Amino acid sequence: MIKPSIYISLLTSSMLAHAQLPLSVTSPDGQITVKLEKQQNQLVYSVNYGNQEFLQQSQLGLNTNLGDFSQSLKYKSHTTASVNESYKLHNAKVSEVNYTANSLKAQFENQEGRMLGVEFNVSDSDVAFRYQISGAETDTRIKVLAEYSAFNLPDNATTFISPQALPETGWMQTKPSYEEPYTFNEALGTPSANGVGYTFPALFKNSDKGWLLISETGVDSHYLGSKLSEGTKDGIYRISFPQAGENNGIGATYAAMAMPATTPWRTITLGASLKPIVESTVAFDLVKPLYQASQDYKMGRSTWSWIVWQDPSINYDDQI
Questions:
Q1: Average pLDDT, the chain
Q2: Which pTM was predicted?
Q3: Domains defined for the chain, CATH in brackets
């Protein structure tokens, strides 16, 4: 992935402590609006597409070993900007990408005096958000014990989502993976097959109003891969961390990072049809290459017996 040109222009800035919520940011074409506000002492956001509600008020926030960032947050400041970024993709659905979006960055202070930044990027088909945590410390490690990011679907939405598998099950105890069966137009809040939530990406149909796909991007060694929790009857799904036993029991079930810390992006692709979801490049739009490959990699000779003979074929003689 090559990103040779980046243009970011500041639109407005509100750095005065007396400014009040709610805040909002709209996509360049004006179709998608994200609203950020407080409800019952919690920070929440909502997403509209046109005049249709696609996500109702949904909680934001984190719980960490350095304090709670989900309750009693005090608004401090915010900025808005436009983003225009061009880059190339190799071996993907398109080769040339021009990513345009509007961004909102809001700063809140918790009761321990540390800052939580909430950043939204809104393009014509995607909403993305992430958190930044900062404080007086510059060399302190922070543990993110829980992420409260929620997705509150309209009550008449339905699901097309894959249940998470239980840890250390399946072939060579390698699950969970993405290979479980999907729900088909199932009611919100229906218990999953294994009772431990759902795998990303997660597709929902908003009645006859359209579709939305929830996922994540920008996950690296500083954080952990997440999933969706079980849903409530009210259509609320939350970010859920791995279970003990995943990755063969290697690693913790929380994130640990140096301060200042930044979380991965949570992404929501939406539209009146599935077209924006099929065409979305949001998984690449929000991240930068971590390194430049030393050479071009080309496909060589390969074999795949599993597609014909399944698990018992994973042996030397069948490969020959």
A1: 91
A2: 0.89
A3: 2-319 (2.70.98.10)
